[in-house]
Design brief:
The protein is α/β, with parallel strands linked by helices and about 400 residues long. The chain is about 35% helix and about 15% strand. It contains 15 helices and 12 strands. α5 packs parallel to α6 (about 170-180). The radius of gyration is 20 Å and the shape is globular.
């Protein structure tokens, strides 16, 4: 394995939730809204009365091996194999995927000093519960209680699990934020998507959310905008005769899905809304981190900001690209052009993230260094260590 002569900070690690992650603390009145059920001998997740296949095996007893999708994401599939065929045989989840104690031992072996941790199954929540914001907040809080207990928001200064927060009800979101801050949270996790609403979805830059953003800035935590089910796959469904249906993991890929690139579209729109609707202007100390969204969208985002600013500069308090470079950090994919990202954002806004132990991530987290050939040792240290260390410590530079 690769080793580096300084503490390495990984911006994107995951745990696999155990069966009681949502149920241990979920109030009894909501138990029928989030259930594990048996369907033809297989365990499935039923959310708000509907079985979801978004994550085909919600028990995570067996999973795809870490890094087993790397060839797919590097576009190295000349035989046209399906993702399932390409990844090979699944593995039984080791304890290090489910236990913080065992994970710390693995991090020692991997050469990781500290990591920001995210859930896996939680991506099913918000898109399937936007009809009931109190239910949504209750399920999120039950997960966060479990995460605090089992993983910790700042365990031993090494495991920094990010509590999930939805802004669907801003008062409940502030309550959840305050609860997490009291327990040492150094960041939070939100999905890049318009905010759920009963009458209409709305921009995260709407004035009603300012008290929440103000508290994040005051506490000097950062906001992770992590890939999730943002509902964007429905755009593809409209073009494929499946409108209203749910995306299913490992289904045979239609190249049109890749062309629509819903993950890039979601983060592009989220950052656009946060900047165009003034969050960065009203809260200059807030910091956002784009996680597991890659960076191929950045070039077009910069181009469009230049265009809309040129068309109507009076609609902005300052150049939106200045806010982009001040308020946002990006975790690129290993297959991305990282040099190009650095040229657009600056090396002090780029973070290393392995996405371990997910199949689309790196089997050996520190092998990310191989993608940094041509960078100076000082710049590599910023990407692999100092930038995330500063965020966790509340730095504002």
């Amino acid at each position: 394995m690769t080793s580096l002569p300084y503490p390495v900070y990984d911006a994107d690690n995951h745990y696999y939730e155990t069966a009681d992650a949502f149920l241990r603390y979920l109030p009894k009145q909501y138990r029928n809204e989030f259930q594990y059920v048996e369907v033809r001998g297989r365990t499935k997740l039923a959310v708000a009365g509907q079985i979801t296949n978004y994550i085909p095996n919600p028990t995570f007893d067996v999973v795809a091996a870490p890094g087993s999708h790397e060839k797919w994401y590097r576009a190295q599939n000349p035989d046209g194999l399906s993702l399932r065929e390409l990844q090979g045989a699944p593995i039984t989840s080791p304890e290090s995927f489910r236990s913080s104690t065992e994970r710390l031992k693995l991090m020692d072996e991997q050469g990781l000093h500290a990591s920001v941790f995210f859930p896996t199954l939680a991506s099913v929540i918000e898109e399937r519960m936007n009809h009931d914001h109190v239910l949504m907040a209750s399920v999120v809080h039950s997960l966060n209680q479990w995460v605090d207990e089992e993983w910790g928001f700042a365990r031993e200064g090494r495991i920094f699990a990010a509590p999930v927060i939805s802004l669907a009800d801003v008062d409940l979101a502030i309550d959840e934020l305050e609860w997490a801050l009291k327990r040492g949270a150094r960041s939070i996790c939100m999905r890049p998507a318009p905010i759920s609403g009963y009458r209409s979805r709305r921009s995260p830059g709407a004035a009603e959310f300012d008290p929440f953003w103000a508290r994040c800035a005051e506490a000097k935590i950062f906001v992770n905008l992590h890939l999730s089910d943002s509902g964007y796959d429905q755009h593809y469904r409209k073009w494929s005769g499946g409108e209203g249906q749910e995306s299913v993991g490992f289904e045979k890929a239609d190249p049109l899905i890749g062309m629509f690139d819903p993950m890039s579209r979601a983060i592009f729109d989220m950052i656009s809304a946060l900047i165009c609707h003034g969050v960065a202007d009203r809260h200059p100390d807030i910091r956002f981190v784009s996680v597991e969204n890659g960076s191929v969208w950045m070039k077009e985002l910069v181009r469009m900001f230049k265009k809309v600013y040129g068309q109507g500069p009076q609609q902005f308090a300052r150049d939106p690209i200045e806010n982009l470079r001040r308020n946002f950090f990006v975790v690129p994919f290993y297959e991305d052009n990282i040099q190009e990202l650095v040229e657009m954002m600056g090396v002090n806004r780029v973070l290393f993230g392995s996405d371990y132990p997910h199949a689309e991530g790196l089997g050996d987290p520190l092998s990310f260094v191989d993608e940094l050939k041509g960078f100076s040792d000082a710049d590599i240290k910023l990407i692999m260590s100092d930038n995330m260390k500063g965020l966790l410590e509340g730095a504002r530079n």
